[in-house]
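Issue 218. Parser rejects a valid record. Input:
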Amino acid sequence: MTSRRLLPALGLLLLLGLLVWWLLPLASEPTAALVATPEAVDTRREKNPSAQLSRARVEAVYEAPAALVAELNSPRSTITGDLNLINDLFTNWRINFPRVGHPFGENSEITAALIGDNPLRLPLMPRDHPAINAAGELTDRWGTPFRFHALASDRMEVRSAGPDKIFGTPDDAVLTPPGVNPPL
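Output the parser choked on:
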């Protein structure tokens, strides 16, 4: 008789444990208001004066990506520098979205995620950046949309068509992040 009463209680405890396990990662994710704008810190501090994030830290997190892409397609840089900037942008993405991997999809979908159409509404580059064309694609210095190829969750190959604007020709520029074994 005791085991009949114990069995439903154990089932309820198991169900409660599964619910906590499922909700725990959601509770540990930062909210958009926490990281999206420096003003969010002031609002959070009003509610909780012992908030851990300082306004300066939030400003640094918010402004770092914008400063990172400021030189993209700049005349002071080269296509190699541009490809490295984009790789750094993806590294910044992985820091902000550690459980997600790279943004995925076509160029326009990846660009949309980078400009703030992501779960945190966190823009890693400005929507009006000159490297974004009218179709919402991230373009190289010659106006051709980059091609992105996810090699792993932590590595994204970035390809530019080069000055001739045609993919598959000798002037293409490609960045394959380290750690990827070249095809045999």
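Fixed in the parser; the record now loads. Confidence is low (pLDDT under 50) at residues 26-62.
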